[in-house]
Amino acid sequence: MEELASRRGIPVLATALSGGRGIESVTTYHHLFVRGVPDQLQPDSVVVVGQPGPSNRIARLLETGAPVTHVDRWGLFSDISGTMKMGVREDPVAFLERAAPQQQAGWSGEWKRLDQRLRQALNDAIDDAERPTGPGVARALGTLPWSSLVVASSLPVRDVDAHLTRPSWVHSNRGVSGIDGFASTLLGVADRRPGTVGLVGDLSFLHDSNAFLCDSKPGAVIVLIDNGGGGLFDLLPQARFAPDFERFFTTDPRRDFSVLADFHDLGYVDVDSIAAMSEAVGSQVGTEELAVVRIGVDRSDDLGIRSALDAVAAEVLGV
After folding, report:
1. What phi and psi values does residue 221 have, to the nearest 5 degrees?
2. Which of 13, 22, 40, 147 is surrounded by the fewest CB atoms within 10 Å?
3. What's the whole-model pTM score?
């Protein structure tokens, strides 16, 4: 796919979960589409392979009015936005080889230029943060030597999708309640893929913690972002309007995770910076111990960096 796209000049927006991120793929789309699809990037057509997301801003590309074709070798089409004009049951590479014309160099080059400029600006803004944030944790994980990354739902998977740029094996799944099943999934992946790291929020970690009562525990490192509950809800309208917002939506668990780790015979370390987290994960990954690295994140700091990243994107794009 990457070789064909490069040869034809086709921009590829590859999600972190797709396994398709490479040198040629555009990875800043969550911020690139902060005010919609920029005029200079408007497409004549869009081809969707697999399921778009987790960024909800991907939908802005599908809603430009350009015809949207979904391609899947098994005929399983995920048209959540209701924008699909045509579904094609075919190997995606074979379809693009047959149907995608050569793109104008100036247009495809503009995608690459803006993606590179925006990535640098986003990294600079994350580096300027004085305290740990979710985006900062996700970006730092991209520099560490893990083989597989298992990511919980809600903010962790969105941050990984927005800030992890390297080609990687990343797995995430949604349970019935969205956040459930993380620990069970992590244990299953780690049992088959040594060097696995997990990224999870406090509520997701607690929701499936009974999975740690398993007969044997494979080696893995769990990066636990303790941000006092469901930080995703801070980004939704109910943060401004819902009565008893903290009680009914963010639901801060107020628990000492070292006690839970001790109960389940897990290794445990508490860190207060991105650098300390990176050091702790780097020294632990690949060992036979199942360990938790907890990093505290203030939700107001986290909300602030997300607003700042959107502002940086708008400035870079001139919108």
Report:
1. -120, 130
2. 40
3. 0.92
For residue 262, which amino acid is it? Answer: D
Nearest to residue 148, comparing CAs of 293, 294, 286? 286
Q: How far apart are CA 80 and CA 162, in angstroms?
A: 20
User: Is residue 125 in some structural domain?
Assistant: no
Q: Which two tokens stand for residue 157?
A: 């998977």
- The enclosing H or E element of 135 equals helix 134-141
Say how far apart CA 239 and CA 307 lie, in whole Å: 15
**CA dist 291 to 189, 208, 262, Å?**
15, 16, 10
H helices present in 49-130, as ranges: 58-62, 92-99, 105-128
One domain, residues 274 and 156: yes
Percent of the chain with pLDDT over 90: 73
For residue range 10-65, list pLDDT tens digits in order. Answer: 999 999 999 888 778 999 999 999 999 999 999 999 999 988 888 989 999 999 99
8 Å CB contact between 22 and 167:
yes
Specify the DSSP element, H or E, that contains 26.
strand 25-26
Torsion sign (Cα): 283, 285, 289, 291: positive
Nearest to 13 by CA among 69, 74, 44, 55: 55
| 137, 168: one domain | yes
> Residues 6 or more apart from 49 whose CB is under 8 A from it?
1, 70, 71, 72, 92
In a domain, 217, yes or no: yes
Alpha-carbon distance of 258 to 225, in angstroms, equals 13
The total of structural domains in the chain comes to 2
Q: In what order do the strands lie in the sheet with 170-171?
A: 170-171, 148-151, 196-201, 220-226, 290-296, 267-271
Which residue segment(s) compose the domain that 33 sits in? 2-120
Query: What is the helix, strand, coil percentage profile of the chain, to 5?
Result: 45, 15, 40
CATH of the domain at 203: 3.40.50.970
Q: For residue 138, how far is the Cα from the chain centroid?
A: 8
Q: Are residues 116 and 137 in the same domain?
A: no
